[in-house]
Amino acid sequence: MSDTTIIQLFVFMLAGFVGIQTIHRIPPLLHTPLMAATNAISGISLVAALVLAGSGEGWLAGLLGAIAVACATANIVGGFLITDRMLAMFNRRPNPKNGATP
Amino acid sequence: MTHTIIQLAYLGAALLFISALRALGHPDTARRGMQFAAFGMAVAVAATLLDARIVSWQWIVAGLIVGTVAGYPLGMHIKMTAMPQRIALSHAFGALAASLVGIGEYAHGLVHGTLTSFQTASLGFEVLFGSLTVTGSLMAFGKLQEILPGRPLLFRGQNWLNLGLIVLAAAALVAEIVTPGHPLVFGSMAVLAALVGVLFVLPIGGADMPVVVSLLNSYAGLAAVATGFALDNTILIVVGALDGLSGFILSMAMSRAMNRSFANVLFGAFGAAPTVDAAAAG
């Protein structure tokens, strides 16, 4: 294994730890929005799909890449739109409550 | 120079994604968190488009247009009550993208004869997690959408069959790592993983499905990590790890919120199978 790979393993370990820590003790109310948001985030494989689709390695790589780009884009666009809709819905709930208490 | 710009942009995107996850954990800041994540994604994609490996644009543009057109109704015209199945379907898309990239990169390495054991291992994990997530998510979608029966489907020896298939898929992966360059072995590994995805979701009932959907999200993240190792791409490793581990923790938190043990949700078939048989007999 090269030095780069070792450093990447460190990056993986630390990022994973951050992932665990940030989600720790999240209120159940936010479970579904978080699931929708991380679903959109998992569309990061678009980055790899772009490189494959644009590699100019013939039509097979191009076609596979284009399908991958389309799938990942649909995942990202749909995921963020629906998370936003969901959060907009229950952002309304605390506001009237805050408005009513004072 | 371009390389440095790309890497620095990735660094900024990683920071945005981490802040996003943190903000998503509190009701007041959740929406801002989502905007951070969307912005981070835009930065990562824009930086990637500068990559020197990208030489042709027609496939990229076609894919982006089709994806946006398909993704918009998936986000805007779906009822809130249909949320879990929509997320499951979206997972299937994301994981399919990861699997196709894995297969494409494998084919590329095969043609050019550049496959190393390490790269094969990364691509193998990517396709393994990817195809498992595709079929598992489609099963979850089918059950939640009530295309398939929502009740748990159980049969004798189910867990042993699953275990056997996982062992076979792992053996294929190991064989491919030891001597890279056998497309048949690589392909059968992908098919085995896809089968495991179907069988893994089969015994899980509709009510427990959100936990499974979140776990599949975690697998999609791990597939992205494997892609990152194969392509030497740090943002994929960082974001995949964030997604993979937070998805795992989230699925445990969700089963706790339902007063179920995590193992019970996933491997409930162990204890449940005889009961169902008895009920069917009586």
From TrEMBL, chain A:
Instruction: Mention one GO biological process in which this protein takes part, according to its record.
Output: NADPH regeneration
Reaction it catalyzes: NAD(+) + NADPH + H(+)(in) = NADH + NADP(+) + H(+)(out)
Gene Ontology MF terms:
NADP binding; oxidoreductase activity; proton-translocating NAD(P)+ transhydrogenase activity
How would you describe this protein's topology in the membrane? Multi-pass membrane protein
Q: Where in the cell is it found?
A: Cell inner membrane
Q: Which UniProt keywords apply?
A: Cell inner membrane, Cell membrane, Membrane, NAD, NADP, Oxidoreductase, Translocase, Transmembrane, Transmembrane helix
EC number(s) on record?
7.1.1.1
EC top class, as a word: translocase
Highest taxon listed in the record's lineage: Bacteria
Cellular component terms per the entry's GO annotation: plasma membrane
What is the name listed in the Swiss-Prot or TrEMBL entry for this protein? Answer: proton-translocating NAD(P)(+) transhydrogenase
